[in-house]
Write a sequence for this structure.
């Protein structure tokens, strides 16, 4: 995937300097993606809530620590991918072809709407 992301950055016209800057983030995202795949496979048969005994010998329930670790890594992965996506050039919005969408402010919009109703 690392190569795919870097290739996408090249094809999108991202400068070499910017690609070098974002490369560690891409590498870390790739590492996390691999670990997330492994963790997800391990969690298939694990319960979300597990029983445990605390230091005083009292049994209670808590969230499975594996799920908590997975969730933390997923959040970190998503933050990293957001940075990678931010490195891509912004796409140019498509110009509105419909006259109804062209007004630049509310007043123009309301006036154009009244004209069409008349």
């Amino acid at each position: 995937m690392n190569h795919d992301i870097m290739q996408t950055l090249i094809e999108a016209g991202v400068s070499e300097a910017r690609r070098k800057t974002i490369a560690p983030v891409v590498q870390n995202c790739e590492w996390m993606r691999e670990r997330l795949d492994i963790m997800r496979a391990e969690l298939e048969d694990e319960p979300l809530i597990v029983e445990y005994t605390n230091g005083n010998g009292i049994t209670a329930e808590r969230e499975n620590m594996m799920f908590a670790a997975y969730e933390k890594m997923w959040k970190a992965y998503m933050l990293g991918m957001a940075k990678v996506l931010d490195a891509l050039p912004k796409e140019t919005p498509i110009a509105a072809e419909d006259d109804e969408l062209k007004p630049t402010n509310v007043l123009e919009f309301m006036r154009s709407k009244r004209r069409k109703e008349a």
In short: The chain has a mean pLDDT of 82.
